[in-house]
Amino acid sequence: MARQISLQQDLVSMYWDYQNISDPKIARDLLLFASSLGFIANRKVYSNWCERSKAKSVLANLNFDCIHVCQKFKNAVDFKLVMDCGCDSSDIVIIISGDSYCEIIIDSLHLNGKKVIIFAHEKSAKFSLKNLADMFYCVNDLPQLVKNKT
């Protein structure tokens, strides 16, 4: 019996806490990295956006869904990101953050069979995130990662 080969790509979703990692210059490399893993189904970036924000315009032009989160309470962006991420149906979830709030959702994503990749600043990332994620990368290493994958 011949073995069938699946041509279906994994679905990849990106959830970016822009208040934690506020560098629109990494957006293209994030997209290249994510597309090397499969088909990008979601690309969400969270912040308390100003309507005329230059960063928001750059990200929107790259088809990121810029989610505005009011700052009525502390860590509102973290909570919104975690809630949205928990409802995701992709195979691979990329979280660009570093906050310990991401820990809340990683176990649940794993239980649902999802692979979790974290991008964070090396010095500010919680050590536990490095251990919980399937893969952990420093955002400063992103250009080299993309170069190696392409």
Number of helices: 6
What is the helix content?
25-40%
Structural class: alpha/beta
Portion of residues in beta strands equals: 15-25%
CATH superfamily: 5'-nuclease
Q: Which whole number gives the mean pLDDT?
A: 88
Counted beta strands: 6
CATH architecture: 3-Layer(aba) Sandwich
Largest sheet: 6 strands, parallel
How many domains comprise the coordinates? 1
Shape: globular
Write the H/E string, N to C: EHEHEHEHEHEH
Radius of gyration: 15 Å
State the CATH class.
Answer: Alpha Beta
Tell me the span between the first and last alpha carbons. 35 Å
What does this 3D model show about the protein?
It is globular, with a radius of gyration of 15 Å. The N and C termini lie far apart (35 Å). It is an alpha/beta fold and 150 residues long. The model has no long low-confidence stretch (mean pLDDT 88). α2 (54-61) links the parallel β2 and β3 (65-68). 35% of the residues lie in helices and 24% in strands. It has a 6-stranded parallel sheet with strand order 3-2-1-4-5-6, sandwiched between helices.
